[in-house]
Design a protein that fits this description.
Layout lengths: L4 H9 L24 H11 L5 E4 L2 E4 L10 H12 L5
Antiparallel strand pairs: 1-2
């Protein structure tokens, strides 16, 4: 599936309260080849996911934002979140 810039902008601008769980992928279900260069992994991710800005995580919908300047990975951010949620000092 080829995603247009306009479609990506529409998905990014969608209010999380308007999202339907049945129209979102479950976190962890979308896999891609981690040995490919980052730009090819991003294309593969966009082809495989229905909405790159939101996904189902358990019984919740997780809205995702992307930073153009951060050096931290999603894994780094998830570790930070887990530490905050369990009140472990950073």
């Amino acid at each position: 599936m080829v995603v247009t810039v306009e479609e990506l902008q529409r998905l990014e601008d969608t209010d999380i309260r308007e999202l339907k769980r049945e129209n979102l992928d479950n976190a962890g279900d979308v896999t891609f080849d981690k040995t490919k260069p980052a730009n090819l992994r991003m294309l593969e991710f966009l082809e495989k996911t229905r909405n790159p800005y939101a996904e189902n995580v358990g019984e919740y919908i997780l809205a995702v934002t992307y930073s153009r300047t951060s050096e931290e990975t999603l894994e780094d951010k998830m570790i930070q979140l887990a530490k905050r949620m369990t009140r472990i000092p950073l």
